[in-house]
Amino acid sequence: MRSESRWLTRPRATPMVRPFSKRAGLFCACNPMKIRNSLRSLKGRHKANRLVRRKGRIYVINKVQRRFKARQG
């Protein structure tokens, strides 16, 4: 009991935040980007899909329907 009350009353300089993880985006509902081995089938899902190469990775982006996002590599 004594240790629990100490943690409850101890002031903190910064709030407790979990460290950033690259895998966190895979399970977050706010970023539904698919990580795939092949993007050819995903490119054909919508007429506005574009293949873009950025920093050695290949992305499928869509500015009309933002949910059609994917990454390879």
Write structural notes for this entry.
- With 73 residues, the protein is α+β, with helices and mostly antiparallel strands.
- The chain has one domain.
- The protein is 22% helix and 21% strand.
- It has 3 helices and 4 strands, in the order H-H-E-H-E-E-E.
- It has helices at 2-9, 24-27, 40-43, and strands at residues 34-35, 50-54, 57-61, 70-72.
- It has a 4-stranded mixed sheet with strand order 1-4-3-2, with no helix packed on it.
- Strand 2 and strand 3 form a beta hairpin.
- It starts with a helix and ends with a strand.
Name the assembly state: single chain
Radius of gyration: 20 Å
Order of helices and strands: HHEHEEE
Share of β-strand residues? 15-25%
> Fraction of residues in helices?
10-25%
Q: Name the poorly predicted regions.
A: none
Total number of β-strand segments? 4
Spatial sequence of strands, sheet with the most strands = 1-4-3-2
Distance between the termini: 50 Å
Mean pLDDT reading: 76
* SS summary, helix count: 3
Q: Shape from CA axes?
A: elongated
Largest sheet: 4 strands, mixed
Total number of distinct structural domains: 1
Structural class category: alpha+beta
Main features:
four-stranded mixed beta sheet; alpha+beta
Summarize the structure.
The chain is built from three helices and four strands. It has helices at residues 2-9, 24-27, 40-43, and strands at 34-35, 50-54, 57-61, 70-72.
Fold blueprint:
Blueprint: H1 2-9, H2 24-27, E1 34-35, H3 40-43, E2 50-54, E3 57-61, E4 70-72
Parallel strand pairs: 1-4
Antiparallel strand pairs: 2-3, 3-4
